[in-house]
Design goal:
about 375 residues, alpha/beta, Aspartate Aminotransferase, domain 1, Aspartate Aminotransferase, domain 2, seven-stranded mixed sheet, 11 helices, about 40% helix, globular
Length: about 375
């Protein structure tokens, strides 16, 4: 899709904030490099940063320290660490669908099988317990939850979280909870799987979204059980040895001096969300949930005779780049993902183009 796009195309395709990291973090990385922090760190990462992360999560899980955290080269690195730690050949993992496209291949790399549980539009993209029960067996070792979700923007309530937690406990499953959008939420408080009293919980997080550091590639894994973290650290060593030295000092500075930065971004994203959802829901034949997290909308946008991929290509020819729902699994068919990581003016212009393409396809 990117290769086909021309220079005049308005892109809703990339899940990347159109902000820069906080200036204090950029300056801190420069100063750290000048100060000689250009070497290997310990595999688990800078102790001061790990402690800061543990303390920041203390409102969920009191009493944690640096032994509960392992720094990684991004959230995607963290995911692979977890799967390599937990999955053996013959094991399977329950995965959400629509999904972040790296989930399934990561399990395959670890020698396991992914079993996808549908998160459907009619259920506001929340998994249903009876469906989960139909997929789990004695070889299931873990379930992955992703809230707020990429690509749907779905979030969960505490009650829904507790039902999903009870399911995992009932089957003695590890919970891998991908919460990289935890600070980009609207109208609600983020609901985490950390702090529920279940030690078989691995929290995946990243600074890519919260501090607009996508290109810096830095994230972490947190677990209430330090013994589990020690096993994770083994995998971290064999995958990337350690995270970036100077960058960890920069993130530590962002924690201390730009702690409100994610909320400032979220205010702008919320205004964009309201704009794009209002426009989409006003279009004939389009239905769009108003997401409470992340920066994606995943409307049901069906045109008779066209798959979501074919519709995405029609939109591209009309000057808009968006992602076909089928790129996120079979359950995404009939949907298009729009990332509202562009200006409000561009969103408005892009929605004008979408409206024109849909009218043309309807023969108007």
């Amino acid at each position: 899709m990117f290769d086909m796009a021309g220079d005049d195309v308005i892109s809703f395709g990339l899940g990347e904030p159109d902000f820069q990291p906080p200036q204090v973090a950029i300056d801190a990385m420069h100063q750290a490099m000048l100060a000689g922090h250009n070497k290997y760190t310990t595999t688990a990462g800078l102790p001061e940063l790990r402690l800061k992360i543990a303390e920041s999560l203390g409102y969920l899980q009191p009493g944690m320290d640096e032994s509960n955290v392992c720094m990684t080269m991004s959230g995607t690195n963290a995911l692979l660490n977890c799967f390599l730690t937990l999955v053996n050949p013959g094991s399977n993992v329950l995965m959400p669908e629509p999904y972040f496209p790296l989930y399934g291949p990561d399990v395959l790399i670890a020698g396991g099988e992914s079993r996808f549980y549908p998160c459907l539009f009619e259920n506001e993209f929340i998994p249903q317990i009876d469906v989960l029960e139909s997929l789990v067996d004695e070889d299931t070792v873990a379930i992955l939850y992703n809230f707020p979700s990429n690509p749907t923007g779905a979030t969960i309530t505490s009650e829904q979280r507790d039902e999903l937690l009870a399911f995992a406990k009932r089957h003695d499953l590890w919970i891998i909870t991908d919460e990289v959008y935890d600070r980009i939420v609207y109208d609600v408080n983020h609901v985490s799987f950390l702090g529920t009293g279940y030690d078989q919980t691995l929290l995946i997080n990243s600074f890519s979204k919260t501090f607009a550091m996508t290109g810096w590639r830095i994230g972490y894994i947190c677990c209430p059980n330090p013994d589990t973290v020690r096993q994770i650290i083994k995998m971290q060593y064999y995958i990337t040895a350690c995270s970036n030295d100077a960058m960890q000092y920069a993130v530590l500075t962002a924690f201390d001096e730009a702690s409100n930065y994610p909320e400032e971004m979220a205010k702008e994203f919320q205004a964009r969300r309201d704009l794009i959802c209002g426009r989409l829901n006003a279009m004939p034949g389009v239905s769009c949930h108003v997401p409470k997290g992340a920066f994606y909308v995943f409307p049901k946008m069906e045109v008779p005779g066209l798959s979501s991929e074919e519709l995405a290509i029609e939109l591209l020819h009309g000057g808009v780049l968006a992602s076909p729902g089928s790129a996120f699994g079979e359950s995404g068919e009939g949907h298009i993902r729009f990332a509202y990581t562009i200006s409000r003016d561009d969103i408005s212009a892009g929605m004008d183009k979408v409206e024109a393409v849909l009218a043309r396809l309807r023969g108007e």
